[in-house]
Amino acid sequence: MDYRPAVPEDLGQLREMYREIVRKMDEEGFRIWDEIYPVEFLEGDIADGRLYLLAENNNIMAAFSLCDSSAGEGVVKWEDDHAKALYLDRFGVNVCCLRQGVGSLMLKRAKETAKNLGAEYLRLFVVDCNVPAALLYQKNGFAPADGVYHEVIDNELVLRELGYEVKV
């Protein structure tokens, strides 16, 4: 398996992978992502050097972004609010790779990468109704932070997001 930063040539395959994830989430009643988020953020993530992927035989199995900040970072109570942290965003596993350990492997890589980039913590937010994702994070050592971040999407949609973190 090839773990590496994404490059512009990966964009088409990444967009299709995330579109399939959105379709599967919609089918399962998790209407959290859509045709804009996260798909339209991938190009910027690649340009900024913060999108990483795992591929096998040139097929992308999973991807995530590591960001310096998050809109909800000041809302919840972290273990150490002053420690350097990176934020895991747009974490996605190809639908053909679900329940094969790929998510756990990518979280391990995310922790290693965050540590190599000088972070003390890897943090993330997950929408409260996305129980499978929350369980995956907990299984991989992430602990919940105190508090809830309410992300206002529009007048009719507010996502209730829970913070998780792990010391790297």
What attributes does this structure have?
4 helices; 7-stranded mixed beta sheet; alpha+beta; 168 residues; Aminopeptidase
How would you summarize what this structure contains?
With 168 residues, the protein is α+β, with helices and mostly antiparallel strands. The chain contains 4 helices and 7 strands. The protein has one domain: Gcn5-related N-acetyltransferase (GNAT) (Aminopeptidase), CATH 3.40.630.
CATH class: Alpha Beta
Number of helices: 4
CATH architecture assignment name: 3-Layer(aba) Sandwich
| Uncertain stretches | none
Strand arrangement, largest sheet? Answer: 1-2-3-4-5-7-6
Largest sheet: 7 strands, mixed
Overall mean pLDDT score? 95
Radius of gyration (CA) equals 15 Å
Q: How many distinct folded domains?
A: 1
Query: End-to-end span in angstroms?
Result: 23 Å
Order of helices and strands: EHHEEEHEHEE
According to CATH, the homologous superfamily is Gcn5-related N-acetyltransferase (GNAT)
Question: What is the β-strand count?
Answer: 7
What is the CATH topology descriptor? Aminopeptidase
Helix content: 25-40%
Write the layout of secondary structure elements.
Elements: E1 2-5, H1 11-27, H2 42-47, E2 51-56, E3 59-67, E4 85-93, H3 102-116, E5 121-127, H4 131-139, E6 143-154, E7 157-167
Q: Would you mind describing this structure in some detail?
A:
Helix content is 28%, strand content 35%. It has one domain (2-122): Aminopeptidase, CATH 3.40.630. 35% of the residues are buried. It is globular. The longest helix is centred in the first third of the chain and has 17 residues, at 11-27. The protein is built from four helices and seven strands; from the N terminus they run E-H-H-E-E-E-H-E-H-E-E. It has a seven-stranded mixed sheet. The chain is an alpha+beta fold. Strand 4 (85-93), helix 3 (102-116) and strand 5 form a beta-alpha-beta unit.
